[in-house]
Each structure stands twice: as C-alpha cells, then as structure tokens.
Amino acid sequence: MKKITVIGGGSTYTPELMDGLIKHAGVIDLGEVYLLDIDKTDKFKIVAELATRMVEHAKAGFKLRWGTDVENGLKDADFVLQQYRPGLLEGRINDEKLPLKFDLIGQETTGMGGFSCALRAMPMVAKYVEAVRKWAAPDAFIINFTNPSGLISEFVINTLGFERFAGLCNIPINTLQTFADTFNCERKDVFLHYYGLNHMSWIDKVFVKGEDRTQEAFTKTYKPENVPDSELFERFAIESGMVLNPYLRYYYTTQTKLAEEKEAKAGKGTRGEQVKKIENELLEKYADVGLYEKPKELEQRGGSMYSTAAVELIRDLSTSGTKEHIVNIRNNGAVENLDRDYVLEINGRVSEKMIRPVCIEKAHPLAKGLIDTVKLFERLTIEAHLKNSRKKAREALLIHPLGPGLEDVDALLDDMLEANNKYFRLD
Amino acid sequence: MKKITVIGGGSTYTPELMDGLIKHAGVIDLGEVYLLDIDKTDKFKIVAELATRMVEHAKAGFKLRWGTDVENGLKDADFVLQQYRPGLLEGRINDEKLPLKFDLIGQETTGMGGFSCALRAMPMVAKYVEAVRKWAAPDAFIINFTNPSGLISEFVINTLGFERFAGLCNIPINTLQTFADTFNCERKDVFLHYYGLNHMSWIDKVFVKGEDRTQEAFTKTYKPENVPDSELFERFAIESGMVLNPYLRYYYTTQTKLAEEKEAKAGKGTRGEQVKKIENELLEKYADVGLYEKPKELEQRGGSMYSTAAVELIRDLSTSGTKEHIVNIRNNGAVENLDRDYVLEINGRVSEKMIRPVCIEKAHPLAKGLIDTVKLFERLTIEAHLKNSRKKAREALLIHPLGPGLEDVDALLDDMLEANNKYFRLD
Amino acid sequence: MKKITVIGGGSTYTPELMDGLIKHAGVIDLGEVYLLDIDKTDKFKIVAELATRMVEHAKAGFKLRWGTDVENGLKDADFVLQQYRPGLLEGRINDEKLPLKFDLIGQETTGMGGFSCALRAMPMVAKYVEAVRKWAAPDAFIINFTNPSGLISEFVINTLGFERFAGLCNIPINTLQTFADTFNCERKDVFLHYYGLNHMSWIDKVFVKGEDRTQEAFTKTYKPENVPDSELFERFAIESGMVLNPYLRYYYTTQTKLAEEKEAKAGKGTRGEQVKKIENELLEKYADVGLYEKPKELEQRGGSMYSTAAVELIRDLSTSGTKEHIVNIRNNGAVENLDRDYVLEINGRVSEKMIRPVCIEKAHPLAKGLIDTVKLFERLTIEAHLKNSRKKAREALLIHPLGPGLEDVDALLDDMLEANNKYFRLD
Amino acid sequence: MKKITVIGGGSTYTPELMDGLIKHAGVIDLGEVYLLDIDKTDKFKIVAELATRMVEHAKAGFKLRWGTDVENGLKDADFVLQQYRPGLLEGRINDEKLPLKFDLIGQETTGMGGFSCALRAMPMVAKYVEAVRKWAAPDAFIINFTNPSGLISEFVINTLGFERFAGLCNIPINTLQTFADTFNCERKDVFLHYYGLNHMSWIDKVFVKGEDRTQEAFTKTYKPENVPDSELFERFAIESGMVLNPYLRYYYTTQTKLAEEKEAKAGKGTRGEQVKKIENELLEKYADVGLYEKPKELEQRGGSMYSTAAVELIRDLSTSGTKEHIVNIRNNGAVENLDRDYVLEINGRVSEKMIRPVCIEKAHPLAKGLIDTVKLFERLTIEAHLKNSRKKAREALLIHPLGPGLEDVDALLDDMLEANNKYFRLD
What we know:
The structure is a homotetramer. The first copy, chain A, is of the alpha/beta class. Chain A is 47% helix and 17% strand. In chain A, the strands form 3 sheets. The first copy, chain A, has a 6-stranded parallel sheet, with helices on both faces. In chain A, strands 7, 8, 9 and 10 form a 4-stranded antiparallel sheet that branches. In chain A, helix 6 (149-159) links the parallel strand 5 (141-144) and strand 6 (165-167). The interface between A and B is medium-sized, with 32 and 32 residues.
C-alpha cells in the first residue's frame, strides 16, 4: 500500500487535498498519509485534526499521521508533496511590498518577489530532496507546489539531479477544464500545444477529439477569478492567436499591474495580506470539532482544482496504462526551438512511475523570446544561491524583463538581504 | 460509423485482418470495410468471398464490399490500410534473386531488393495518397504495411507531406508481447526505449511498470520463427546491452545471410518463392465455401499479430483517451541525436485522430551510425524516384552499407531497370 | 580599375571618406568615385565640390563624379557604400523626441527611435539593392553605414538575400585601435572574441599576438568621447569580465539615459539637433573654395575612424591574401549558441571578394539573452515592413526590452505613423 | 629565438624538412632544431649527420642537435613535430598484410590497417603530449604527421584536451597547388570549401580570387603519383560535382583496391615493403659524407610538399597577420551539419600562436554519411584504447564501412593482438 507524505502539511490547503485523497484512496491503494511540518503550531494542530476527522468520518481506509520528524515523515514514502511556503506568509508579504519602492513588480512568482522567494526556498528544497533520497522509497516521486514552482522545478531536476519529479500548477488543469466545458467533452479529449515556464505559458493550438479547434478556442482564454481582467490583454491574446497564461499580464501590462499592486498595498492589502486574513477565518472554521469535510469557504483561498491535479497525477503514476498531464519537466526535445535541458511546463505522458515529454513542434517566437530570457534569470538565480554570489544575483536581476537597471540593483539587493537575513546571504 | 478501406484487399493476409476487425467492430464503431485491389483476379475473388462469409457468419454488424474502383473504394473512408505488394510476388522474387549475382543481399526491405521494391512502390503510393486526399474523409488516416515500409513512411510523410499516416510493422508488437510474457504483465505495462528505422531498430531500455528491467530483458531478444538464429548475433546483442531487430543480421552477419540467400535460391527457393507456394495452398483452403473463419495454416504465412497491431491502432485512433503504439512517424525531437525530420520507428502517443512522438533521449552511437547512413540512402532513393535520376540512384546504392562499389553499381542498375521496365525508369 | 559609388554622397561625412580613398587609391586600383544622392541640394553641391577639389589637389588619379541618376551612379560599380539617412536629420530628431513622451528611449539605433528609423530605411534599402543588382558589376559588394545598421544588415542579407554585403561600424575598429595602443602593437595583432548585434556587442576574450590578455584588457573599455561615462556601467563591465559596447548603457542604465535624453531635449537639444548645428558649421567651412582637405572640425561630428574602416575593408576585398575585419555578416556557426542564420557583428576573414565568419565558440549567457530578444525584435520589425502589418509592429515593440507595454503601444504607434506618413504605413 | 623539436627525427623524411627549415629560418627566427628519436640506431645517426651537414653547409644560422633524451629534446620547444611511425615499417607491413586474409583493406590509415596502427600509436602519442606539457614552452604548438593522422588529431584534441595542435597532411597543400597551377595564380588566391577527415575529404566549391570556378575545377582532381588512377572514380567525381580525396577510392572501389593490395603483396610487395626498399637506398645516399643537400631520390619516397606544409604553418604561427591553412582541428561550427566537436580537416585561419576554423556551410550528404560513420569508428577505437576494451574494438570494426562482419571480427582481432602484443592489449 502507498504512503504519501505532505511537506507543509499544516497548510490551510490540506483539507482540499485530503478531500481528493479520500475520494481516490482505493485506486491509489493508499495506506497512509503523513502530514509533515516544521513546528507543532496551533495552526498545524487545527489542520491535522480536521484532516484526521475527515479521514475517519469518510472511512477512507488509510491512516492519517502527522508530525515534525523528517525521518518519520518521509520513511518509505512513495509520493512526496511539497506545498510549504518558505518564510511563511510574512516572507511573501515582504516579497510583495519591497520591490514596489523601486517601481518593480513584487508578485510572489513572477517579479522581483519571485526572486527573493526563490532564494529562501532553495536551501529548504535541497534539504528535503536530500531527505527524500535518504528515507523515502527508492523510487519515490516528488510533486511540487512550493513557489516559485517553475524555478524550483529547474533547481530540483537540473541542479539537484532528482528526476522523479513533477512541478504542478492548477492553471493547466483549469485551462483544460475550461476547454472541456466549452466544447462539451472531457478533459482527456482536449490536447493542447501548451508550453512555457510555470506562470508564463502559451497555448497555440487546441485540439478537441483530434480536431483543430484553435480558432474557436483562443478567444475563450481561461480567466481565473483572482486575476483582474483587462481588455488590452484579451485583445492581444486574440491578435496573437494564442491563449495566454494570465500571469503574462505582468509582462505585457506591467504599468497596470504595478499600479494595482501599489493601490492594493495602500488599501485592501497585498495578496499575501489578504490571504492571511482568509486563512485566519478558515482556521476558525477548521477548529470546529463538528466539521468533517472541507468547508465551502476554502474555495475563496484560490487554488481551484489544486487537489484534483495532484491526486489524479498520483493516481496515474500508480496505475497501469498511459495518461497525460501538463507538468514541469525537462523538455528533452518536446518543443523544438527551446533548449533540450530547459525544465518547462509541457505535456507529459504519464504511466506507472514514469513521465515522458510529448513532442509538439515549435514555440511561437514571442514566447521563445521571453522563455529564453526568464530561463536565463532562473539559472542565474540558482547560481547565485549555489555560490552565495551577489555578482550572479545582480546578473539575474539585470536580465529579468521586470527587473531593475544598474541604478537600483544594489539598493534592491541590500533591502532584500536585510529582510531575508535569516534565510540567505550573498557575498 | 467508420469506413475502412484496404488497398491490396486481395492479399492472402486479408482473412487475418478481417478476424481482428470482426472482434473490435463495436469499439471502432465500424460501418463498412472495403477491399480494394487492382484486378478482379480469381485470387481476389476467393479472398473477398471468404471475407464476406466471415463477416456474415460472425454477424459482425458491418458491411463488407469489394471492387477495383478507386473512387468507390476510398469514398469517405476514415481509415485506409495499404497492404499491396508493388509488382506482386514476381517482383519480390526478382528483387531477391537479382542482387545475388553481385554478391549482394536481395532481401525485400533491407538490401538491394528493398531498393528496387521502393522504386516500384513509390509511384503507386503517390497515386493512392492523391486519391485519399481527393475521395476519403478529410481527416482520413493511412496505415501502411506496404514494403519497404520504412522508406514508404519517409516518402509519404516528408515528401508527399501527408501527416495523418503511420507506418506499421508486426515486430514492435511482437517484441512488446514477448516482454509482457517474460515479465508476466500486459503489453501496456511495458515501455521501451525503442528507436530506428523499420526493420533496423534497437531497444536500449526496457521498463516494466516503470521499473528498469533492461538487464533481465535484453538477453531475451525477440526471435521470430522465420528468421534463423545465430549465436554470433545473440552474443553481440548481449555484449551491446541492446535488443536488436532480427533484420540487423543483414548488417552484422552479411556473409552468413548472403550464403543463406544463395543456398535458398539454389534449393528450397527464395522467401518469395516459398511464400508463393504457401499462398497457393492457402487459396485452396480459402476457396472452400464451408470455411467461415481464418484457417490455422495462415500462421505459417508470417505476419504474427499483424492484424492485432492494425486493429488496435485503428481502435485507439477512434476512441477517447491516450494510448501508445510503436509506429513509423516523424521524430520531431523524440530521439535527441537523430535529425528532427527523420521518419523513425518510435513510440507514439495515440489519441483520437492523433499521433505524437514520445521523448526518449539519445540513440546509441552504433545505432545512430547506421540510421544516419540508411536514412540518407532512403532519401537519395526517393530523390532518384522524383527525378527519375540514375545519378541519385547510383549515390543511393553507393552509400548503402549493403550496396555495391563503383565496379558493379552500373551493371546492377542496368539489370534492375531491365527487370522493372514496366514500373520505373531512370535517366 | 575599380568604381566606388557612395549612396548618400551628399553627407557631411563624405570629405572624411574621400580623405581615406585618396590615400589608398593606388592599392585599390581606384578609377572612379561616384557620389549619388537624391536631390541636387545646396548641401550636396558644397560637399561634392569640396570632394572634387580634394581629389584634384591630391592628384589622386581617379575620377570624381556626382549626380542623382541611379543608373549612372551605380553603373558597373564594384563597391557601393550606403551612408544615407532615411528622412534626413528631421527624421532622426523626430525619432529621438517622440518616444520620450512615453518615457521610452529615442536613440536612433537602439531604442524606439531605431524602430521608426528602420521602417523609413527599409523601403529605400530595398530599392537600392534592387538597383545594385540591375546596374552594378555582377559581383559588386555593398558596404553599409545606414542606420540602424544591424537591422539593415539582417534585412539585406536574410530578407533580400543579397550576400555580398557587410554592415560596418566604427566601434569595432576603434576598439581594436584602443587595444593596439594599450598593448603597444598593431591592430592586426589583436584578436577579439567579439560578438553581438551592431551597437549591442560584447568582447569576452582579448588575444594579443596569440596570448590571452583579457584580464588586463577588459578594465580598459573603449570610451568614445560622445558617450558620457558612468561609474555603474564600468563597474558592471569589470564584474562581468567583458568589454561592453557603450550603447549597452541604454539597456543597463535605462533610467539614466532616459533622463539624459529628456534633459538634452529640454536644453542643448537632442543628438540630432546638435548634429544639425555642427553640420551647418561644417558646410560653411566646406563652402570655402580655398579648402582642399577635410577640415579639423569634422572630428567633432563623431564617426572617428569611419573612413579607415571602410577604405581598409575595400582594400582587403580587392587584394590577394587573407585579412580580418569585424563586420555584420551571417553567423553561419561562428558563435556556437546563437542561431546560424542570425546576422551578427563578428570577426570576418576577408579575402578578394569574399567574407567568411571565423569561429569563436559561445556567447556569454547575458549577451545571448539580449541578442536573442533584440534579433527577434529586428525580425518582427522586418515582417511589419514586408506586410505593412501593425500587428507585427506591435509584437516587435512589445518584445523589445526598451519598448512599451500594451498600455502605450498603440498610442506610440499612432504617433510614429503620423510623423512618418510620407515614409511608411501599417495597416 | 624559436626551438623546433622533431619527434621521429630519424625518419628518412627529415632531410626534406631540414631543407624547408633552412630556407625559412630567418622569418621563423629559428634558434635550434632538435631531432628526437627512441634509439641511436645507425639510421638515426646517418639522418642526423646529413641534417647537420645541411645546416652547416647552408650557414642556416641555427643549431642542429639530436638525441634520445625526451627532456633534453623537448625542453623549451616552441614547436613540436610528430613524424614517428609506431611499430616502425615492420608494424606497417603487418597492418597491410594481415587484413587481406579476411578480404579486408589493410591500408595504413584508411582500412583495418589504420585500426591497428592507431592502437599502436595512441600510447606513444599520449606519452609525448604529456612530455610536451611538462618540458616544452607553455604555449608550445604540436604539428602532427604521425599516422593515422586524422584519428590521432581527434585523440590529442578531444581526448587529451591538448588544443594547440594541428594535424597536417600534404594532400591539401598539393590540391591547392594544383588549382593554383591550373588557374595560374598563387595558392593564397584559392579558397576551397574543403571538409572531411584526413584522407577522407571532399571539395565542393573552388573559389579563385573570390570567383566561383568550381565547374572548371572539379574535373581536374588532384592525382597523386602513388595512387593508381581509375576511370570509374573520376567519372564519379565529375558526376558528384566534387573533388574527391584519392583515398576515397578505398570506399568507392573497394574491390579494385583490395585486388591491387593482394596483387602487390604477392608481387612487388605492399606499399610498406616498397618504402622499406626505397628507404634503404636513400640511407645509402644519405651516408655519403660529401652530401650537403637532400638528394633528388627523396621525391620517390612520397610526401610531396610535406616540408612546405609544415614550414609554412610554423612560419604563419610565428608571424604577425592572418593566413590560412587546411588542417585537422575541431570543427566548432565551421561545417554546419557536422557535429561541433568533431576534429575535421578544414580551413583554419592562422595567426600568431592561434588557429581558428573558418565557416563554410554544409557538407554534401554523401560526405556527411561517411564522415559520421568513420568519426564514430575513430571514437570507438579511442575508447577501445582508453579502456583496453575488446568490446569497444569489436564495435569499432563492425561499424567501419571497410570492416568485417560478426563472422570474422574475432579472428581478425585475435590476429592483430598477436601481431601487436608488444604494443597493445584488449581484454
């Protein structure tokens, strides 16, 4: 029977995940779920106890354990989910606010915020991957949600050399679902020419039951609730003939997004601050010992279909036959004009314990331009981490399309270093 | 409901195919099978009438029609199977015998025999592909068994630009079945790092349920009954750590194969001559109006699992979800160190009306060496056909590892041209 | 004897060029120089008459002719120099001022100014290349100074398919001269790993007489007089271990350059406005019928060593043996990690009527990132020109690191179209 | 002043080389030539004493020393020439005879003879390169004539990582001279699209003073005296539109060459046996103390222009300015469709202490096919040497177009191992 370990098990997302695991416990042949976190905080306790009640109430047939001991937690695990947030919400809020001082985007994955988030995350990720190698089952698979998920996938696969790994995001599955709804079919009937980095991806062909329906599809871009819409961006998508990941707004309407971020900071709070409020409300709900299911309010938290993506991937990595998921894996030739060793968000053929990329020809030049540049940023950031190198960090920031010029790069770095001095240093 | 047209429907293989189609008629949603051939010979009549009896007897629920009119035959077809033999068995027997005069291999796909066979086949293939474009359903798929199947696949996909095409062979499916038997699982549980050209392929990794079982597997190479075994060849496979396509014997034990061919020619007859005898015996059986099923003797004909491969591919191109078949399609990056535009025999992810290659990293240098050279031969042969160019034909023969030197190339070409003057010319 | 035609012969630079041609007339075997321009303006007359006096006074031994007839001008020319400015200085001044409204760089080659300059230039370039094909000698060579010189080189070589072409700039020759001075040797003793686009290039290795002197060299970056220095930029060069083209300041210290441009516009005038003033002063000097040589004041005009670069290239394309020049030509594999078909500013092996790239391994990732992106901008701009496509123009601007976001792109385009309605349109 | 060390200084070629060095001593600034060999044999003594007399008689102004001490010989050398024959002529004669037993070509560089020669050579080459690193000047350059020169170049540059290296052959310089004579110009006026491996090269474009004269040139293939002509081969060259290296006869007219080798073995002796006779005659001449110049009879020995190639390369690596030589160096992108890391025989831009490849676009498919295959053979042979691996040796022989099949590969290897047991072993 399988054991699944959730690192960052104390997250308020956990009930969502538990809901999915309970539903598919049988087909996964699930024996145990272990919620692992760093401290036995009240939050962790509340979440873990709700999870326990959910499993018991549903007679799910698997054990729910929780704790902070890494060896116990990872021992013989078949699947490891990474969903921790390095530096917690405080770290994220810092990431969001700090770059605004220099008129730069602070979003947690895409802008300068993603940079400091990455530098906090990498040491932890390296430690946990090491622990997975030591204690988990020899063919354990890691599924990652920890942000910035794209850069972390690049780091784990190409730097740490851990290949049984998939970076996962809920945008691809939501996009597939949107098209399935639009064309009145199942997700498995939709095949997308989908490529890019996490939160920076393009779709230039939409096939439904093998027929090219791109013309009908690309005007129906996925519009997640938590990203405000923009007429400019939609018109650009239609003109380009491509479905655009909503996070591309940070690149194409930078000024607008910057103004939004500044307004939010001054008013209703940054996204991190809002999430903090929502989380506190959720935890109050969770603490109700009469609650045996995930509460409705969890949907507000964002992350629609998050658990579906994870649970279905685990299921398809555990069962016979060939399935398909859009995941962050090494390109290996699937997209012709992107380097073979780039970790990309692309179609993966999934079978038992295996993911292999599926070939889809060339990326559009506009996409290739950004992907090459941001992949270079990712690799320079990784190098900065590996060598604690301020020089490489400067190069990373200077090359990023949303980064500072030479005028501000040092002041920005100084501020980041001060705010994150518990987490990383650069010499 | 689907219509399947079989070009070369008068083949003695047809009952084997009918057997498979009858079994899967429901899942394919089969409405009609049309057997198309060039002349209403006695042979065609016998085969078609047996096929009709089989369909009726099995209450298969689809129509069986047959005839020689290309428009009628292809009209609105959803799948077109090519299984005709250009120049019939007489052509093949010629191909086999003629090169022996120059101490060269005459096998119908691999040696110099494959060359003349290809030059006979291409004009017909071009004509039928044109007809498919004109009369068949707009998204009709062609599945090819016509030899030399690898070169024909290269020609149809890259020269004629017809992409809804798969070159099919029974060796991959037999290999998968052998491993499934060996490891006591289903074919879909086996994933092979399989690559090469048709009848010239290598397997360097065998995964069973996601686990690397190569060490156990490669000593258990597929051994088809109609290819005599050789200790030298097996030892080489084991030393190389690769499962070798049995037709690679022509490259690695050329002298032995040449001696065998000469001996056969002098004694029991070439393979073509033997097949001719078997066919005559089969047709006698087929003519028995009391026969409602494929006769046992058909197995002797070779082509084990031939209909299974075709019928399952048709099924998976007709139904929802993702499956996998080893087929001849364009590489598109799936094998890193082979040109992206080579048509190769590799893993294809199959879903409704679609095949996409699955990435598997690098070909072994020994394999790459031969693949590059023989692919060059294929392309020069295609160029010779397109331009009726003796110069290109000479280049093709000179570059082939089993071809003649400058001393014999012209005499060989002269003989081939004389023997095939009804089929092609070179200026 | 050779004929050289100078398109844009009425430029105030012409006396500089004449000075060089007079010096090397013998080795070039020069028979005639033809100054070609569009109108017989007073300016053209003054320049041409000074040129005539210079040739006569020096007893240079070749004919000086001038006029506006393209056929006469190009008839049997062996070398064609393009040094015209599309839209004249008025066009340039417009290019410089207009983008400032949107807080964007207006420099004539690098920023948004380069974009409108390119759209004005391409139709003229296409017309002249056509005329060269028609009237000039069959193996005539075009040497280009017309801005934006990098994009024009890409356009002529890859779009118009005219391969006997070199884009020339005075920065490479000045850089070589700087190092020759520094290391007390001749320019031919210096070999640079020099690569990039025109006005966007890097040097990561400096060899002097075959010895690697990079460490000593890169701190001694070329500092042209007409580009203000900056401590930030120099420190970055030293940290990167690369000699940086001074125009890279537009990318790395965008805010500073933008502030400078705005200040200049408000005060001493844009560079174009300053040049206009200098030109007027120069023309007054030129008009002096007692002047037989280029006046000292010409140096202020910028373009140090401009004529040396052109004349030496013409000389080495006319004489036996192998020489070397840094020119804008097709990569063809010289720089490993840049596309083979990019036109780049790189080392060219020059012999009679021939230039071939010299291999120098990989571009630094930082350089590659910018080169790929700006080359994409160039190609989209060329596509916009070819199709009069506003859609492609938008894509070009959006991808440029110094371009606008979706918020301003249309307003910027509208302004450019209005200002340039005599020169181009986009639908 | 420069020091040149000749490893294999006792060769009968040495007087030829001395003749060239004496002529160019001034421009090279030559201070000393050291003849280094393994034993103070009579032969070495005779050759060295003649060399001494030549230098003295010509008042060449440099020192001639000779001996067997590697440290003394290589100490502070600026150029090292490798011209030794591993296993001496006896080794070569063995190489030539042994493969004939299996109906395989025994030529010293191209066929199976090249294989055993390479396995004898590599240990010595590795030892001498190590010694050059230890004793010679830090930027010493190695120029190689030791056979098989192509494989040795691959080995030194890519395996040993010694980059200041050029593999040299007299065929390119003779080809250039032939064209210079044909077109009545100097060698430096001829530019060839020349590519391939040593003794396996093609020329598909001939430029004279920048003009494409290919049509006139390719019918005038270089015909060295010591390679018998053949109408078949010439016609093929003309049809292909390419100038073919005469050693390509071994690939294209294998049967004829094999018959020639067998006949020679039975009659006048193999090439090695003939050379042995010539050498003995030469040594008798050399021993004449009244001889102060290279004797006329040396020409019979083969190797026309051998010393010119070497001496001019040394000169151009010692003097200011850019020159060009066809040498064996790493491709680095110069030929588009051949791997960047292949060591090839191509155009090199030569300046002081530096060689860089010059780009020339694509190799013809026929050439590419053979180059890829024989380069794979080279690399497998190198691997066989590095690991003493019989398995890799088998793979090398099996992939070679002139190698055995599985039937003979082991017997051939056994014979080679026995004949060369003093030189190498394979386990």
